[in-house]
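Per reviewer request, we include the raw input and output of the structure prediction for the construct analysed in the revised manuscript.
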Amino acid sequence: LKISPDERLLYTFVEAKIFEMIALAENHGINVYDGLLRYPRGKNSLEKILTALLFVNIDRRPNLNFLTSLPLDSSRYSKSIEITNRVSSVLDKAPLSPENLFYEVFQSPNTMVEAFKEQLRLESQGQVQIPPALPFFEEMLKDAPQIAKTLPQHSQSQQKIHRSHRQQMRKLLETEQNTNWCRQLTSAFEAALQRLKSAHTQGQITAYPFLKILPKKSYVDLMIQAVNTIVTDTELQHVSRSLFLLQLGERVESACLVWRKQNAGIIDELVNVYKIYADFFTAPKRKLEHFREMWLRALQMNAESGVSLDPEWPKWSNQICMMVGQELYRILYDHLTFNTRALKPQDPENPHLRQDAPVLFEVTSDDPGAAHYEIRVHPILLKWYKASGRHASLVFNPTELPMLCPPLPWIDTKQGGYLLSSSDATRFIRKTTYFPGADAAADDDLDFDISMIPRVLDSLNTLAACPWKVNQPILDVMLLVARGGGEKSLSMPETKSLIPVPRKIFDRTLPREERISAYRQFMNIRKIHDETRSLWATEMYRLSIANEYRNKVFWFPHSMDFRGRVYPCPPHFHHMGESIVFHYLFN
């Protein structure tokens, strides 16, 4: 084959560039010939990379195997090798049954794929609404005998009027959110972007890059969802401003992660790989010993044309989440208003008359030892939500709920668990400003090379593969007990025994000793109310999730801490805890 001088010059240039890139990768500790599949790649990029490597060295073949190899610098892991070899020698001797104990959970691989798609839909939404199985704490107080005496009684006709207006109030609230709130927040968001862009071009550190990832409507929807969350949380607990800012920033990060994965083709690739994994999972006989190996084989079978499921995008730090949450909260606090006349009858002469008021305001904590701000919703808007029934939904992140399909097997400490949401197999105790190598004292024993002890991940994967169901008779009994006012002997917070909180303003004419005694009584009663409210919120979360999943089969992703103890990832509802909680479930 004759090559023209121009083509020869081009080949020489391309060859030099390829050698330059290989040298640059090796300088950063990346071996492009070993473990090539472990690094991020785009769709059909593997073929181009292999072509380039074979172009410069046709005799050296890259290792196209997902099984991780030993690290280049084994001396770094000499202590880890000494420890993990003892563990591996024990785990490797554990007998494995050739029978697949979980193959009867699904009727077919297609059934498992359908469950996977439903879980994928929930995680793509970012939030899941669950109807509460118990009344809110303030509603339960009305049934307490001592408190019910102090409350006005409503007639049945008044209750019927309330029910007839609920649908109308809900429609008005949806109109307010979809028109006025969207218009206000969109205008304020665009103005904030211009302000941040100007500061960003001057070299200041701002949230501008993080507020340009999603479409504007997505940020507006996230802010409206944040208001809905505050309304629900005020019924259960006090809403700390700093905690709300962090959580709002984390919600934006999760939404950006899903959006970027969708655009990069990662979600489509995940669907294809999970279909192959479903064939392994539902087979009566084990084709491979461990779920980790099943997942690696599924990745291997789709590696040539697929994209990497681990793009290795850096996780936002707490400072970034706070900064993003602060900007969005500033928009909500300064610009979001509502019509306070919505609950009043319309004026026939001026039906479009509005009287706007801010949606949010702040108060300082009553605790003199804690100087922090709490976020409150305007009382009239809170009544509007209650009149429409919109406050009566609990909102959870997908990572706070069980999964409707078997979790992704852990193949290292960062890949596995939930489908789209990021999670870790190990629970590190880290400083907020920690990054590897910054502080040797912050490193712990879990910083090991997982290729030396994969059986630990296999143990987590086996636990996560166990299906669970709700014990419906026990759940029904506990719901009856809770709705009846609780029972301490069953670890159920009691609301029926609470007494009214006295007034904080005391008569100045009383003697000093009586005022001190009255103040102590007030603080003790309020403390009991606050503790019961907190316990009631915990029980409401647990029973509401259990009631939502009562007819479903579900799974718990697991992680482990620095002691090697394993825990389910969902925080509110799982099989660990008090004995009565364990009886909610069976597998």
